[in-house]
Amino acid sequence: MSLRAENLTVIGRLANVSCSLERGGITAICGPNGAGKSTLLMALAGLLSADTGRAMLGEERLVSLHLKQRARRIGYLPQSADIAWDVTVRSIVELGRMPHGDSAREPVDTAIAALDLEAFEGRRALTLSGGERARMLLARVLAGEPEWILADEPLAALDIAHQLTLLAHLRRQADGGSGVVIVLHDLALARNHADRVIVLDEGRVAADDIPQRALSEEVIAKVWGVAARWIGEPGAQALVSDLSV
Ligand SMILES: Nc1ncnc2c1ncn2[C@@H]1O[C@H](COP(=O)(O)OP(=O)(O)OP(=O)(O)O)[C@@H](O)[C@H]1O
């Protein structure tokens, strides 16, 4: 069942954006600051109504889906999430089960293990570092076992080892049939790990393709205004830029 944006316009933020995503892969949304990435992700999560156009899950309009039903199918991780309660890490992860009305042990344990949080389970959530907190909040999303995982910059606060662990976990979710959509600023991570990349520029789709084409040196020069080139083996490439440009 596809997740789609159909001619979505949010005035001042997105202009006539269309895309159709299928489960079973990782899609990265990239673009400069203010390009509309978070706005598109929120619309695809059903959290924002468009001025014109619509976001659809299969044949249903996302904004008309019942909240609980939508939360069961789409797990959304915002860019910066504050924790309001002084409770344990495990209790926060268990909140991911709310749409199901249970606190089933197995998915909570799996999510905690996937994010390498076993040692923190009993800790008060408010005492975690930024990266640990980011892992906990993603574990909460995973505990809900949604069909779609939509995450806004989930790797930003993570060290390289946890970035790679998390990407491997998202890959397993995608291989298992989930749809994974992540906003990424790190173009090398997008190029090396996504199956597809949507590049936004000033609220419009500048590219929507396999990473090699969507993040070509030409697209990067046009959209980011940076002269950069890819080096290294396919799947393990780095982007180098000339600082004098
Ligand atoms: N609630 C809002 N009301 C009005 N304008 C907004 C609102 N949220 C974001 N914008 C504007 O919409 C545009 C797109 O914002 P958005 O957060 O989607 O960009 P982004 O690509 O995710 O940026 P970044 O990389 O900086 O996180 C920006 O110009 C932003 O200032």
Could you characterize the architecture of this molecule?
With 245 residues, this protein is α/β, with parallel strands linked by helices. It has a single domain (3-83, 146-241), classed as 3-Layer(aba) Sandwich (Rossmann fold). Helix content is 33%, strand content 26%. The chain is built from nine helices and twelve strands. The strands form three sheets. Strands 6-7-8-3-9-10 form a six-stranded mixed beta sheet, sandwiched between helices. A four-stranded antiparallel beta sheet has the order 2-1-4-5, with helices on one face. It has a two-stranded antiparallel ribbon with strand order 11-12. The radius of gyration is 18 Å and the shape is globular. The relative contact order is 0.17. The mean pLDDT is 92. The structure holds adenosine-5'-triphosphate. The site of adenosine-5'-triphosphate has 10 residues, from helix 1. Adenosine-5'-triphosphate (ATP) binds next to helix 1.
State which percent range the strand residues make up.
Answer: 25-35%
- Output the structural class: alpha/beta
Bound molecules: adenosine-5'-triphosphate
Report strand order across the widest sheet: 6-7-8-3-9-10
Radius of gyration: 18 Å
Tell me the number of structural domains: 1
- Write down the secondary-structure element order: EEEHEEHEHHHEHEHEEHHEE
The largest pleated sheet is described as:
6 strands, mixed
Residues in helices, as a percent range:
25-40%
Oligomer: single chain
The total of helices stands at 9
- Could you list the spans in which at least 5 consecutive residues all have pLDDT below 50? none
